[in-house]
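Figure 3 (text version): structure tokens given as input.
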């Protein structure tokens, strides 16, 4: 069996290219003929690939393997390459999706990563169906309807609208915008989209990102923040909002932000249109007989991680079970019979995630009520055993869900802190935690010659440096030197030494003897204590280390009134903080 990711799309946005992708599977389409007669002979690089593809199309084949569709990244010597520029065309979708630079560079094929994204999109809209056992793909009835419409026709638009209203994440975006009635950025939408608290569904706080953009004076950095800094759920939100705009369900506007240096361009904002409001009301209907039946697949229910197949299967069975019962106790009992012995809190979190993925479910401790009609979907036969899931991660999450009052979004930090590829996520969500849960003034900085962030009250300020490390944070002279520079920048406040003047984000009332430094990481190992002591002696400024579990426990203590933010400096004593 091939476990692929469908249901969540980050990059494809062009409906015209999507239609061409679907027409690859339709032997009666004009694109199919163009592939056979013109495109494949002229663009596919290797003769063996040309011959194979032309043989397929001359025999009107309409079902293709994943490799034939997406291809691989190989150079002219037929060797694997990590350089996309060296890669040659070797798949049907690579030569179907022309890159934006086709007119200027003349390159008439895309890369395999983009090809995969468009295939995911076609499958997620139910234009193309997959055979997970054979790893092959073919067109659906809805796909044939779409393929054979006249370009830019009313009929084409109606089919796209139908596909969008059957796609749960799109209905979640429409429902969010309908409920709020206002204008919102991708971050507002992303915070309520998908399986919140999981690696594939990270979102950044809207107010934090706007404040970060406003405090950045470098225009290049501003552009990078607007275009490149977003969580995975924020990407989904941006992409889905773009689709909804194209079919008339959503409106988009540009924004301006007022800064001390004048106006700058802000993040785009989205609002539901009258047409979108009418569409979502009709789609959700007052009666089961009038509701749009939503399209789902087993692959929709998680995107990444070694735990994904276990989680997908558990969530798929939850949906199957709640189509036949409204009893929470029966749901738990049937899951246990199937081999799922997860805590009730985990199951509730699954229900919450299915909800924010666009499948409407109302539930409490006794009752669970599925409000949507779903297509019949298959669940692969997997051995549901402990080997399929990462028991340690699940247990840690479950413990924090059961024993703290923290939103699940912040419990995700337990995983993020141990993933070195997610330093940006760790930095941004940690600063958000300080702002939203600790209740501190928290400023995200990032970028060159600046710390990751600052937290403060009117009485004290802390320079924050976050480090996501899989095996823990040990002593590092270069990172100690970096922190010393930040502390001295703040002490000297010399514009000639550092023209960025990031220290201006601290309240002016703080006296120099009330500044501190702090490293935050997964855990601290080896001789890290020496780094704290050395930094103190070099700067005469106290500091601390805070591991991710204590970071979360401190936030929970704030919520429960066991820790006062005014007492935090009392815990900064040049050692690792253990709150209680």
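Below: residues designed for each position.
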């Amino acid at each position: 069996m091939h476990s692929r990711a469908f249901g969540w799309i980050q990059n494809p946005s062009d409906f015209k290219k999507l239609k061409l992708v679907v027409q690859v599977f339709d032997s009666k389409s004009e694109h199919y003929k163009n592939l056979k007669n013109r495109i494949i002979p002229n663009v596919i690089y290797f003769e063996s690939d040309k011959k194979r593809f032309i043989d397929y199309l001359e025999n009107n084949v309409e079902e293709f393997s994943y490799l034939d569709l997406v291809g691989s990244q190989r150079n002219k010597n037929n060797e694997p390459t990590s350089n996309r520029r060296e890669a040659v065309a070797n798949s049907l979708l690579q030569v179907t999706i022309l890159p934006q630079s086709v007119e200027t560079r003349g390159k008439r094929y895309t890369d395999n990563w983009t090809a995969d994204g468009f295939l995911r999109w076609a499958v997620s809209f139910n234009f193309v169906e997959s055979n997970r056992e054979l790893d092959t793909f073919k067109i659906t009835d809805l796909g044939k309807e779409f393929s054979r419409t006249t370009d830019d026709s009313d009929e084409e638009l109606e089919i796209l609208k139908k596909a969008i209203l059957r796609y749960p994440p799109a209905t979640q975006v429409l429902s969010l915008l309908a409920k709020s009635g206002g204008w919102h950025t991708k971050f507002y939408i992303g915070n309520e989209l998908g399986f919140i608290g999981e690696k594939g569904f990270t979102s950044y706080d809207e107010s934090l990102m706007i404040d970060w953009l406003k405090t950045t004076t470098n225009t290049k950095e501003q552009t990078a923040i607007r275009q490149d800094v977003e969580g995975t759920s924020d990407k989904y939100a941006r992409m889905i909002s773009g689709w909804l705009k194209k079919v008339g369900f959503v409106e988009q506007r540009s924004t301006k932000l007022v800064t001390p240096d004048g106006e700058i361009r802000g993040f785009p904002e989205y609002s539901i249109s009258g047409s979108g409001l009418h569409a979502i009301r009709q789609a959700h209907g007052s009666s089961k007989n009038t509701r749009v039946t939503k399209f789902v697949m087993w692959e929709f229910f998680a995107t990444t991680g070694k735990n994904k197949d276990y989680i997908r299967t558990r969530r798929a069975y939850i949906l199957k079970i709640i189509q036949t019962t409204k009893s929470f106790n029966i749901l738990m009992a049937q899951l246990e019979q199937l081999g799922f012995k997860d805590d009730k809190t985990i199951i509730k979190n699954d229900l919450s995630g299915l909800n924010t993925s666009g499948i409407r479910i109302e539930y409490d401790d006794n009752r669970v009520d599925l409000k949507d009609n779903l297509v019949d979907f298959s669940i692969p036969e997997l051995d549901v055993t402990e080997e399929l899931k990462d028991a340690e991660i699940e247990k840690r999450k479950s413990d924090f869900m059961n024993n703290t009052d923290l939103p699940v979004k912040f419990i995700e930090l337990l995983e993020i802190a141990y993933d070195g590829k997610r330093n940006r996520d760790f930095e941004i969500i940690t600063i958000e935690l300080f702002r939203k849960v600790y209740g501190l003034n928290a400023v995200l900085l990032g970028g060159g010659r600046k710390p990751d962030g600052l937290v403060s009250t009117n009485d004290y300020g802390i320079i924050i440096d976050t480090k996501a490390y899989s095996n823990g944070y040990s002593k590092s002279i270069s990172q100690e030197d970096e922190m010393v520079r930040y502390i001295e920048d703040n002490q000297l406040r010399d514009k000639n030494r550092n023209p960025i003047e990031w220290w201006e984000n601290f309240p002016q009332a703080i006296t120099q003897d009330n500044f501190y430094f702090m490293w935050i990481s997964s855990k601290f190992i080896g001789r890290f204590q020496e780094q704290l002591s050395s930094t103190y002696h070099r700067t005469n400024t106290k500091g601390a280390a805070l591991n991710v579990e204590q970071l979360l426990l401190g936030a929970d203590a704030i919520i429960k009134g066991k820790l006062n933010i005014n007492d935090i400096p009392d815990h900064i004593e040049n050692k690792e903080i253990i709150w209680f």
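The chain has a mean pLDDT of 94.
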